[in-house]
Amino acid sequence: MEHVDPEIDDRLFRNVMGSFATGVTVITTKVAEEVHGMTANAFMSISLNPKLVAISIAENAKMLQHIKDVRQFAINILSTDQQQISKQFSGQLHLKSEITFGSYKGLPVLEESLAIVTCVLHSEFVAGDHTIFIGHVTGVKLEEKAPLLYSQGKYRELKELEG
């Protein structure tokens, strides 16, 4: 195994990782009738059979313990018209607006999302300063909308290339 360079600058590493364009999600769950949510872009499909997805949550995030406690969560894949919702759940907005949640498969969801994936916890793995939660998919919904993207510290939209 090759030795990893401990001299890699943290800021440079963050900038390199941030240059990868991702979709934007809000992870939601409910603990004792209280809804919790957080913006995340660390989400991916893992397996088709069985249907599994992964999210990565920082060890210092409140959402980490909520998912461990209730063992279920929803992934709301945001559309271009949900940028303010992303900012609210990432703590970027000082003035918080009231969010209305719908319910799908017993979990709180953002109704105007591009897509929704509900999960029960399949497994979890600690990796560095994050926990990777693998969710067994219990439901999916999809709308005809454009995805909200994030890259290089900015929100982005898709544009078709001439070709």
TrEMBL record:
GO terms for molecular function: FMN binding; riboflavin reductase (NADPH) activity. InterPro entries: Flavin_Rdtase-like_dom, NADH-dep_flavin_reductase, Split_barrel_FMN-bd. Keywords: Oxidoreductase. Residues 17-157 form the Flavin reductase like domain. It comes from the Bacteria. Pfam families: Flavin_Reduct (PF01613). The keyword Oxidoreductase applies. GO terms for biological process: pyrimidine nucleobase catabolic process. SMART domains: Flavin_Reduct. PANTHER family: FLAVIN REDUCTASE (PTHR30466), FMN REDUCTASE (NADH) RUTF (PTHR30466:SF1). This is Flavin reductase family protein. It comes from Sporosarcina thermotolerans.
